[in-house]
Design goal:
alpha/beta; UDP-N-acetylmuramoyl-L-alanine:D-glutamate ligase; 9-stranded mixed sheet; 4-stranded mixed sheet; 10 helices; 15 strands; 33% helix; globular; disordered N terminus
Length: 317
Amino acid sequence: MSKGAPAGEFNVVVVGSANADLEVRVPRWPEAGESVLATAAQRFTGGKGANQAIAAAKAGDVPTAFIGALGNDSDAALLCDTLVAAGVNTGFIRTVNEATGMAIVMVDPEGTNVITVVPGANSLVEIGEEHLNVLASSRVVLAQLEIPLDIVTKAAEATEGTFVLNAAPSVPVPPELFTKVDVLVVNQQEARDIATRSFGLYPSDNKILMRALQRLVPSVVMTRGAEGCLVASPDEEIELVKPLPTVPVDHTGGGDTFCGVLAARLSAGATLTEATRAATAAASISLSRRGASASIPTASEVAQALTTGEVPPPPAA
């Protein structure tokens, strides 16, 4: 899985998006052209990249850096403060002449969400000379698809350790990017989309689908919500990792928590299955709390959940 890079200053480098989230709680989804009164609204920090960086940094003694772009506005200051408070190095973030990215998140009473993203500064993320060394020396580099695809490809090309791609949101991925991916993390729909675009169809059997994706990348993790995760590594049987029982409050950030903790555990030498177990426990905890980055658990909470098999209560306010 690893390309043999030496340990550098950072165990994990996340390349991705950062958003200011406006979360709106609604009693039900509105119909087309209908207005629905929200029951509550709250601002959170978010964006797949920022969330994943925070999750990696909070996963234990894991030096983590974030490469992204922010505007010169109050949302940028809030995001930087949140990243720094979690222990993420923000020295590689560009300040650009564009508003910081924004996401409008509607959440129903079951915790299911619908998200609209305004990319803003995220469309101006760059990989410059100052980023090449930190990418090459990091044990794990993690990216998603809320930033331009050519930037993700440049990050992958510069990576000498393990490159993890969370192929979300679902967009067409150039074949040359897949050749640089060590671990692909997708949900079931994203997996089907990739198989359809790459092979013209997707198998209905999930394990056959996983093996099809391994024609593109060495290792695959497919998340399936309450049904758990499937893990496929080279020359290994496909394994099922079950989630912890939880009552979802808010799905926002659950997948990002999963990816960040997975990257952190891989950087510490865990096998893909071991890392997936920890990531699944962390995601289960996240779903029981509100917000994106605000719901990400600490390393001690994840350790407690792995030991007890139960989601710990949220910390006292």
